[in-house]
Amino acid sequence: MRNTRTGGGRGRRAAALTTSVLTASALLLTGCSSDSDGDSDASDSDGKITLKVADYGQFGYKEAGLFEKYQQLHPNIEVKEETTANEQDYYPKLLQQLNTGSGLGDVVGVEVARIKEVVDTQADKFTDLKDSIDVSQWLDWKAKQATTKDGAVIGAGTDIGPMSLCYRRDLFEKAGLPTDRAEVAKKVAGGWEDYIKLGEQYKAKAPDGTFFMDSASAMFNGVVSSSEKQYYDADGKPIYKDSPAVQKGWDLAADAAEKKLSQGLPQFQDPWKAALRKGSVATVVCPAWMSLQIENYSGEEFKGKWDITSAPGDTAANWGGSFLTVPKSGKHVKEATELVKWLTAPEQQAAVFKAVGVFPSNQGAYELPDVKNGKLPYFNDAPVGQLYAEEAKSIPVAVLGPKDGVIKDSISTQINNMEQRGTDPDKAWDAASEAIDKAIG
Model confidence at 42, in pLDDT bands (50, 70, 90)? Predict the structure, then answer.
């Protein structure tokens, strides 16, 4: 999947899926093809059209064999994927290409933490897809994220990140906690406050060298993601300083840091990966794509010892997701639009779920066998297809802002400082606010 992503990070790697069972394989999230600044469109002398798909990390199309299949269905078209490993490197380059009108792909990926800024400031440079794709197929909140005020739809949804909780069954048992996923769900049914209480119970009898959670900043993202109002209001005004969701998430993170319930590891960095390999983390806040990261870095030693249950509380949440867009400047806009329509159709999104495990945003995929019956053997055969489909349909329509990613990253940095350095929560909040205000103006 996409490499470390803005707004809390996000990784993706390949997985293998049978009709009913999802298993992860060993492709790392950062392995990608070369990047290029070449012309965005080309036609060979024999009339064959080349379409460049520019994206980041791992969208799963190559792993699912979709580019090859599309070329078989359209012999006059060759699809070339040009991937940047890290989205944080990819996005500034995309903005530069949009401003200069040079080097753009025929199809361009956009991360959810960036889509609001693109919709508000760059929409006139993208093709309106509303007459080409059936917007009603997508989850309503997903479609709205890529829709302009005048109704243009500039992006077709790829994946989403419905929330769950990943936990180590063996460590829970040693700490005297329930291991059955239904029983664990009951323990956190009251919300993230219950998650903290469960952490205190774990700490009281925790196996030596283990911690209840990997990162309080991950919990913060989970808390904020379950709210409609997060960092901006509907008028585009930053409200993070007064946002009830942000304040709640911050207070819970500060509480977790003070009680030393977290190992204080920024996700996706080497110490975090090492902790998973060592087996020192008992729980991880799990958007749909996170389970594959855990499997990748935990390894065969912990197969069957991890499990997945519902996220704390009764409010659904989403963390992550992307879109495919078609720049107007391309020489083959019609063909690029058709490719986007095909790649984001239910059957193709189900194929990507089967190949790399990322969850579809197209609701039509939810009843297809590869999604509906999807299970993760590594996680004790957790029925993730059903779990995430139920969660996805009740996720609130979040108000997005142009600098959501910057705000999340700044806050996460200071949460890490509270965990690792013992920074006073008030001083940490002041530092986060100063950094955010400087960045967003």
Answer: low
